[in-house]
Specification:
Layout: H1 13-26, E1 30-31, H2 33-42, H3 46-55, E2 57-64, E3 70-78, E4 81-92, E5 95-104
Parallel strand pairs: 1-5
Antiparallel strand pairs: 2-3, 3-4, 4-5
């Protein structure tokens, strides 16, 4: 029989939001090329994206993605639009880094 070690699940929706919002205050975020293209195509401003991350509610629960980062999708009514933002918490030398993956209207 092989040794089985449980995977520690660190985040749930509530502490994902807390960690995401703390990281947004601490250092700059990163926009993927895909997110930038979706923002242009859907006419969503960076202000709307940041409001969604700062005030939105979880729509797709926090989970580990294939890159080993915690990811969730948030939604928020801002600027007359209901904006959804998929974001992941990644790491860099300074700590948690928020990576904005895509933006949906």
């Amino acid at each position: 029989m092989t040794n089985v070690h449980p995977i520690k699940i660190e985040l749930n929706d509530a502490n994902f939001l807390q960690r995401l919002r703390s990281a947004l205050l601490a250092q700059p975020y990163q926009l993927t090329t895909h997110a930038k293209a979706r923002m242009v195509k859907r006419k969503v401003s960076i202000s709307q994206v940041l409001q969604c991350l700062g005030k939105g509610k979880i729509e797709e629960p926090a989970h580990l993605n294939v890159q080993g980062e915690w990811k969730a999708t948030l939604g928020y009514q801002t600027g007359g639009d209901y904006v959804q933002v998929a974001a992941a918490i990644s790491k860099n030398e300074e700590g948690d880094l928020i990576v904005i993956i895509t933006v949906i209207l």
